[in-house]
Amino acid sequence: MAINAEPGDWAQAEGATGAGRAPRLIVALFGGLSDPLGALARARAQLFLWMPVALGVGVGAYFTLGIEPGWPIYLSTLVICAVSLTLWLRGAAWLRVPAALIALAALGLLLAGLRAHLVAAPVLQYRYYGPVSGRIVKIDRARSDLIRLTLDRVRIDWIPPAKTPARVRVTLHGDQSQFSPEPGTQVMLTANLSPPPPPAAPRDYDFRRTAWFDRLGAIGYTRAPVLRIAPPDPGDWAMAAHRARMRLSAAIQARIAGQPGAVAAALMTGDRSGLSEATREVMRRSSLAHLIAISGLHMGMLAGFVFGLVRYGLALAGRPALIWPTKKLAAIAALIAASGYLWLAGPAISTQRAWIMVSIMLLAVLFDRRALSLRTVALAATLLMIWQPESLTEPGFQMSFAATTALIVALGPWTRAARHLPRLLRPVLMLVATSLIAGGATAPIVAAQFHRLSEYGVLANLFAVPAMGLVIMPMGVLAALLAPLGLAGPALWAMGQGTAWILRVAEWVSGLDGSVLAIVQPGPWVIPLIALGALGAILTRGAGRSASIGLILLGGAIWLRAGAERPALLIAPEAQQVGLMTPLGRALLKPGAGFISERWLAADGDEATLDEAAARPAFSGPRGARIAQFRRAPLAHLTGKSAKEALPAICAKGGIVVISTRVDHPTGPCDLWDAARLRGTGAVAISATGEVTTTAQIKGRRLWTRP
Questions:
Q1: Sheet architecture: strand order including 578-582
Q2: How far is CA 15 from CA 3, 47, 94, 594, in A?
Q3: Radius of gyration over alpha carbons of the chain, in Å?
Q4: What is the rounded CA–CA span in Å between residue 316 and residue 516?
Q5: How far is CA 269 from CA 259, 261, 550, in A?
Q6: Where is each ComEC/Rec2-related protein domain found (predicted)?
Q7: What's the pLDDT tens digit per position in 670-691?
Q8: Would you say 570 and 684 are in contact if contact means Cβ atoms under 8 Å apart?
Q9: Considering only CA atoms, which of 63, 33, 29, 24 is closest in space to residue 43?
Q10: Does residue 506 surpass a pLDDT of 90?
Q11: What confidence tier does 12 reach under pLDDT thresholds 50, 70, 90?
């Protein structure tokens, strides 16, 4: 029997005995029933490509568990991992591939749990108002366009050090003109702090989990002036890159005025504190937001420009260029440039991911290997999940690897098709093709994570991305090289023209009619099904590919039903908002509670503003006692000093009563949701049939949900 495998493959050494006993399911997963031995050989050859998939299954399992795993679960998982590794090393041939995948999945769960415990830090347990001091480690901007400071080395009055959060984030209100924040500065302020907020609704984005892995134990604001109590420590090397970043950002914005300068600073340094919320919004609506977060596109363009500059520059050296390994020297220079870019741009996950991808590709050039391949992507994804397993849950990780995988898969067909295209049209058509491929690969993730799609995103990227590659990144590199000579002005001017062009494109596209399509939030299994199906379709053949396409169709079918399954009634975690579904869309109790209300409407696929949603006919009555009808019974929301006094009469009518204070002795037949009950349940969703789902039921007792 002919075996479709490389010389020396394990299948040839094992023979057909073990493979002949392979179960049909195992064989079907890896490529066809007609040639089981060849299918297993191909599976072993592709095991490296499946490594991040299996690891991701384990990581995802940890984050989707309803409870925090205890030592029995971890011990059982460790035993499964050890047994699977033994079978992979010494088991029958047909067992080795599935055993390796099971071992990797078990390892992924263990790594995620280990990481969650390693980053553990105290979380504030109650609201606090008073003095706070610490060191500035991050400066960014809130959605309100106000400056935010993240502090470490925190000291809070009346809280012992063992229970003090490792980091806090404070938004600066009021007049702060006398204070110029600088990384490393020791500051003191009077702040209102609270624990990281719970999700706005069950199965919604959980900021507490993100805060846990950032070791962020409290968030809040201050209206008092920030006091500087000590300057940055010159010997604090941990802040050296941050200080350099902010100074370079300030220098760029001083030479390039307005938002074009803020965009240029964000692209070159990673400092986005100069970007206004209006700029962020038009970039999001036009599908160009990825340009202001340093990612694979930026790192690849910078490394590619340096690689080409060094390689073709060395070619001018004459005879030595025929002797020197110019390609490898260019790869070393590009690797140094990419590493410097990483150091300057900071520790953002997207930047680290981009550096790993580019570094692997450049190392492949140094060792005479193929730089662009699925193996490169698989290795980068595996390293990231081992290092920071929580990155799997982030949209940036998902979109980056989806786009990269799709582009590499399409590279072969494009190369064959490009031979038949006119030479002058190839660059334009390639740009269109890459925009369509990357946009199509990331569209389900964007829709699921952000509940909207830019209908003209391909058009915006078609006009904006060339400016990145041809003007902005090359001019940024030239400006860095010429700055020590005081000759960076022309390069910075050209870079400013490029960023101004990108902003004009974003404003034009975002202003088109129907530029944004609202998408209903899918179920929790939709994206995993589509992702596994897409990867399976790429990596398998025969019956395995058919099964993978079935997973994609199943995920799409579940998504189509999502709109009909949206909760009929939503109650915010602290009773600050209530949303009732009506024939016109979700009616809000009031136009306030901005973040929560916006999350609800976005998940519904509803494009109404908060004022429009609050004006929908549903609630009536005075501000402190709003009344509606839900399932032919009263729905009441009580606030203010008279809420407890009005409660007995309203509760006697039955139905659902939401009250923003604690009720010690409820009376009457109503279903009461007071502050104490909501503190234990979090946000509440009630279906049209009366089924109740709470955040606590979905999230369970996890490290980041502990009271």
A1: 585-588, 578-582, 569-571, 684-686, 692-694
A2: 10, 19, 11, 65
A3: 28
A4: 50
A5: 15, 12, 44
A6: 267-540
A7: 999 999 999 989 999 999 999 9
A8: yes
A9: 29
A10: yes
A11: very low
